């Protein structure tokens, strides 16, 4: 059973930074796309950033220039570096990983709270 475990969430002031980590229980070479979604209270879950096995990245317009996604296959981990955080970035952040013919796996989520 594949497990994804997120860490790095917390409380930060506006303008601050956080780095989220998502550690997989299996080699990330097993996955095609990996990335992060977030869900704020009362809102739908939305894609924040994604990275392919080849390193191509994709970002939501709201985080472009502030967030950076990276993937370390040697450590079986995907990261989300978040700079210039805003109160509207407050949400539960979920890591995901896609595996061919197996579908999508999700982490349990980590809370990010940005105070104004």
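Q: What amino acid sequence fits the structure above?
A:
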């Amino acid at each position: 059973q594949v497990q994804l475990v997120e860490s790095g969430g917390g409380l930060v002031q506006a303008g601050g930074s956080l780095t989220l980590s998502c550690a997989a229980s299996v080699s990330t070479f097993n996955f095609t796309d990996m990335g992060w979604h977030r869900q704020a209270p009362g809102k739908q879950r939305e894609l924040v950033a994604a990275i392919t096995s080849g390193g191509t990245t994709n970002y939501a317009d709201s985080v472009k220039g502030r967030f950076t996604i990276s993937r370390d296959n040697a450590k079986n981990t995907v990261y989300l570096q978040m700079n210039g955080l805003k109160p509207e970035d407050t949400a539960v952040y979920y890591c995901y990983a896609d595996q061919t013919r197996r579908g999508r796996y999700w982490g349990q989520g980590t809370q990010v709270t940005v105070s104004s």
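Q: And what stands out in the fold?
A: The chain is about 0% helix and 55% strand.
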